[in-house]
Design brief:
2 copies of one chain form a homodimer.
Chain A (H helix, E strand, L loop, with lengths): L12 H11 L4 E2 L2 H4 L17 E2 L4 H13 L4 E4 L16 E4 L6 E5 L4 E5 L4 H10 L2 E2 L12 H6 L11 E5 L1 E2 L3 E9 L2 H15 L3 E8 H10 L13 E9 L4 H14 L5 E4 L3 H12 L11 E2 L2 E3 L5 H15 L4 E7 L4 E7 L6 H5 L2 H14 L15 H7 L2 H14 L12
Parallel strand pairs in A: 2-4, 3-4
Antiparallel strand pairs in A: 1-2, 5-6, 6-8, 7-9, 10-12, 10-13, 11-12, 11-16, 14-17, 15-17, 16-17
Helix pairs in contact in A: 1-3, 6-8, 10-12
């Protein structure tokens, strides 16, 4: 994806030397081979370029970098685990990268206040584990948790940062004692919505996951994932992966009661509860592989949208129809977090079609899908952020006054326009 | 408290007529008697003045008011239930009051998305009740809930608003099935901290209240409150009012198990569990009366501070010593939400002292208390906001860059300085 702006002036060797002095020789990367991993991202949608990667270890070093950059109007792009999906962390125009990964100290865990003070470069999974060690839960969980960072998590909804996050204090929760997971087959998103409502009533605050997936998403994951198996004997048009995490030992009984009632009421057609931890992990692997499992099926046009929870069935029906009308044979592969109304509405190319041709229609497909999202009062970006991927669409769908205010805030905090320029706005 | 700034120019009759036209005759108040209730507040600390109270019924009317005010540089003070404790809602300099109470529609309740769209003037208790009617919980609860409004709740932490909130969509939670409440006597804040930790471990996410109060706070409430009785037979130096709200029917067993273990471990000296709803309400009345019950004891200097939860015992010890050294015979009456580290650190005057003399030392006492708060990494304002009451202290304790940025945001959104001028910044 070409998102280049007019080029930044090249960095003088003298200026590079001054940046180098701030972080130390070893942590100022200028060799192309060293810099390369910072320039691309997992989906291979974006390729950046940069003369310099700085790897500061302290807030003082970050501050010195910003001061020097400000003095010489050098644009900066902060980067955490480089797992973003919308190009927010990529230096599209030769900016200097400030990699935060060396700032990975957990400064303090306070179990009385239930807080954990993490530096920006702490890997999400490390934060989760350290919380668990003190019998607490840090509830944020996502596919990239093994490599994404806290600083990146916090700026995900604002790919164009207003500054650089160096550390944050996170709220912790009691660690659940019992976690029970079910894989459920059902007829439609409308039935899944009924199951969600029933589950929220019965499990109340202990319902912690409710993932909806179309049959094709499960099929792809089984076909292309390594060691992924079908949890149910028969096929179903839709599936739900649901989980109850309880502070007491009642999670199993609650889950069984929900599923029994749902079967009686004809909401659910089949269901299996994970018998042990490895089966639970297998259910989650099937879910976590869904995005990667689209790759062998050719080009995929992605959407990370949200609509009011009650509108999800209508959204899926209307979007499928609109997309199939636009590109006959295209294959919607929707999956996502029904409890949030957040659907990863991805579309795989028609079988045998040319991937480049299909991907060339990215914006055309976006327009059709976003139109339905906006009519339903939803959002074109749910959990992946705006970055550069959705920058242009944001202007189309967002209230003009809101955009003006965001621009004014950005201009006020970053008057030289050197903080991750060209992202979001 | 005198917080007057240079006076605003008087409003011309012609301009008043234009404002009146926007909301209709009946809803533009100009008679002194009609305006009076909007000028004072519960603590009788602040007295404002205003030529005009506007009571719009729609966002369009609010918008028209702002446009006209902007055209003529007329300063506005938005007001909800007028229950604020820091003077944020008071027109100190003859500003026009925009009372939001007529905008009291609940626009939508979506039980699938668990959201409720409320206009700004919806009374908090009405929002709670409407949520309960659809088997949901809106968990915000506070002393003024019978008269404070959603718009005011949202702006409480920012008494100097950047605009006017006309409506908000609130997140709802499952309604708990069982609520159990205990009143506990114990020796010290340190013991209360142990009980909190034990309770969080045993009750996990179902511990919903944990209020700490000094003996004197309970005494005042019993002495001066109407129909308030001591829940325990004997006196104790400190008390805790704790509550468990569970989605299941295990709240009673959980609470009993916590208290039994706390007794065994010598953490708790005595405890009683509310036998029924009226006893539960009596426990809460005792707590809710604590602030009002200070009035008959003479002048009270108030603080609404927070420190890290683990630091509360140290804070109370150091603050008591410092305040008693500054004003011998003064009586600290601390109570608050231990789980948040939020203490209403109020100080009643020495017995027989002159109330005006005592209140004259308000800022001197603040300085001593805030110094301890800041050393402990706390905040001088926890849940009451800044308003004008703590405006000057904010400048002393807050990072200079943070203040500059707040000022710049305010200037950007309110370039004419007509939105609740003189508050916070």
């Amino acid at each position: 994806m070409n998102v280049a702006q007019p080029s930044a002036p090249p960095l003088s060797p003298r200026l590079i030397a001054r940046f180098r002095k701030i972080v130390g020789d070893k942590y100022a990367l200028t060799d192309a081979a060293d810099i390369a991993p910072y320039l691309t991202e997992e989906r291979d949608l974006f390729h950046g370029r940069s003369p310099l990667v700085l790897r500061p270890r302290s807030t003082a070093e970050v501050s010195a970098i910003c001061a020097l950059a400000s003095e010489h109007r050098i644009a900066l792009v902060p980067q955490g685990g480089n797992t973003g999906l919308v190009g927010g962390q990529t230096p599209h125009n030769g900016e200097v990268i400030v990699s935060m990964r060396r700032m990975d100290a957990i400064r303090e865990i306070d179990t009385a206040s239930n807080t954990m003070a993490c530096e920006a470069g702490v890997i999400l999974q490390v934060a989760q584990r350290r919380a668990a060690e003190v019998d607490r839960l840090f509830p944020l969980s996502l596919g990239a948790e093994g490599s994404c960072t806290i600083g990146g998590n916090l700026s995900t909804n604002a790919g164009g940062t207003l500054g650089i996050i160096t550390a944050a204090t996170l709220k912790l929760f009691p660690k659940p004692r019992a976690i029970e997971t079910a894989f459920v087959g059902l007829a439609s998103p409308a039935q899944a919505l009924k199951l969600l409502s029933l589950s929220q009533n019965e499990a109340a605050g202990t319902l912690t996951s409710f993932e909806l997936a179309a049959e094709i998403a499960v099929d792809f994951s089984i076909r292309h994932g390594i060691d992924v198996r079908a949890p149910l004997d028969n096929r179903h048009p839709w599936y739900v992966l649901m989980e109850i995490s309880s502070p007491r030992d009642d999670a199993r009984a609650t889950l069984e009661a929900i599923l029994a009632k749902a079967m009686d009421d004809g909401i659910v057609d089949d269901a299996v509860i994970a018998a042990n931890l490895s089966q639970r992990q297998a259910f989650w692997k099937l879910r976590d592989e869904m995005s990667a499992a689209q790759k062998p099926e050719g080009g995929s046009i992605k959407h990370d949208i949200s609509v009011p929870v009650a509108a999800v069935p209508d959204f899926l029906e209307q979007a499928d129809a609109a997309v199939r009308q636009l590109i006959p044979g295209s294959r919607p592969v929707p999956f996502g977090h029904l409890g949030d109304g957040n659907i990863h509405y991805n579309i795989s190319q028609p079988i045998g079609a040319d991937a480049a041709d299909f991907l060339g229609r990215w914006h055309e497909v976006n327009a059709v899908v976003f139109d339905i999202v906006m009519r339903m009062g939803g959002s074109i970006s749910a959990e992946h952020g705006i970055g550069v991927l959705k920058r242009d669409e944001l202007l189309d769908v967002k209230d003009k006054t809101a955009i003006e205010l965001m621009r004014a805030v950005k201009a006020m905090l970053d008057p030289l326009g050197i903080m991750n320029p060209g992202k979001v706005l």
